Structures are given as C-alpha cells and as structure tokens.
Amino acid sequence: MLEVKDLCVAYGVIEALKGISFSVEEGEVVSLIGANGAGKSTTLRTISGLLRPKRGQIKYRGKEISKLPPYKVVELGLTQVPEGRRVFSRMTVMENLEMGAYTCRSRGEVKAGLERVFARFPRLAERKNQLAGTLSGGEQQMLAMGRALMSRPELLLLDEPSMGLAPLLVREVFAIIKEINQTGTTILLVEQNAHMALSISHRAYVLQTGEITISGPAGELMKNPEVKKAYLGD
C-alpha cells in the first residue's frame, strides 16, 4: 500500500533521514519507534507532503506521491494526525470536524462522517459546541483523530498520539487505534511509547539518527535484547 525507498530528507545541511526504506501492507498497523530526534516525525511529514525529500521515492498504491502538495495526498486517502494534536483551539469541536471533511463532496457525506465520529467518540458529541481549546488533552487527541477520520482515510498516519496523556488515557487512545484498524483502516504509527506501539502493531521499524537499524514482526521486536534495553526499559 505504501512503499518508501531510499528516502533522504535534510534541514539545511543536516540530514534528518539518511536513505530509509520501508513498506506498509494494506490492513496492517506498522510502527516507527525510536528516540527523540531519530527522524520519525520527519518521515510522516514527508509522506504527507509537508516536507520535500532530497532524494528517494514514496509510492502510495503504486503512485509516486513525493512531489504532491498535502491536500492532494489527503485526496488520495492518506491523512495525518499531527504531533501535538494541532486542533483549531478557537473553533468548536463541530467546526474542527467540519474542517476535516473538506474532501467530502456532499452534505450527506459530512453528516455520515459526523455520525461515525460521534459513535466512536461519544465525548466529542457531548462537547460538539465547546471550543476545542477548552478540551482536556485526551479529548483534544480524540478530536484530532476524529477530524482526520472525517476524510475517510484508507491509510492513517498517527504522530505521537500518547504524548502528554495520563497512562489511563494512553490505554484508551491505543484501544481506539486498534479498533480503527480492525474496522478497515491501515495505520502507520510514530510513537515514543514503544511498549504500547508494539502491543498493537503487526510490524515495526526502529529508527536511530535517521536510519532504520532493526525491523521485523512486532512480537519479535518486543523480545529483541537491543530493543528491550533501549526502548522498553528492560
């Protein structure tokens, strides 16, 4: 479904990604794990069209997308939930969700999208007229995910969904991610909480200073001594 080949991205003279290659198959949850500054968020931002690669290919369903603007990438069925949630704080919950529905072609599509989101996130339905900036961190994360789901993505890119959340909310958010995958959405997940990420993933890649150092089935990575020592606190 997604194929990244020899991807290099630089900020000025600093190479953030040094020729990484990986793939995501339809129906999978694939995680990119690694320390801060490893290049995880840069990878997602480049796939989304927010950054331009220095070299390399990004293919989505066989189509080269590395030179497309972000809105064209979304129209193809690939949507990102950004790091830090990035909700429109002075707009209501409903207005934020409607912003996510800009690819919808009819009012009926928007209505169906809202019904799906409110069924999955009942708390958003309760707070639909509330300003997004007044929501708790967990509720804002749900809103960011709901906003992304309004465009009915086939591939959802999630950037650090557990960031700044209490442990109980982290578990809730990851249960929702698993459920979104089980209802047919493929997921590429960037996450510092390696234990939670691996627990819901089919496969994973470890990024270190812009390079993939380890990859394999998530269950195997959980038992890998290097991964355990560096990322699982074992």
TrEMBL record:
InterPro entries: AAA+_ATPase, ABC_branched_ATPase_LivF/BraG, ABC_transporter-like_ATP-bd, ABC_transporter-like_CS, BCAA_Transport_ATP-bd_LivF, P-loop_NTPase. Belongs to the ABC transporter superfamily. This is ATP-binding cassette domain-containing protein. It comes from Desulfofundulus thermobenzoicus. PANTHER family: HIGH-AFFINITY BRANCHED-CHAIN AMINO ACID TRANSPORT ATP-BINDING PROTEIN LIVF. Keywords: Amino-acid transport, ATP-binding, Nucleotide-binding, Transport. It comes from the Bacteria. One of its GO terms (biological process) is L-amino acid transport. Residues 2-234 form the ABC transporter domain. Pfam families: ABC_tran. One of its GO terms (molecular function) is branched-chain amino acid transmembrane transporter activity. PROSITE patterns: ABC_TRANSPORTER_1, ABC_TRANSPORTER_2. Gene3D superfamilies: P-loop containing nucleotide triphosphate hydrolases.
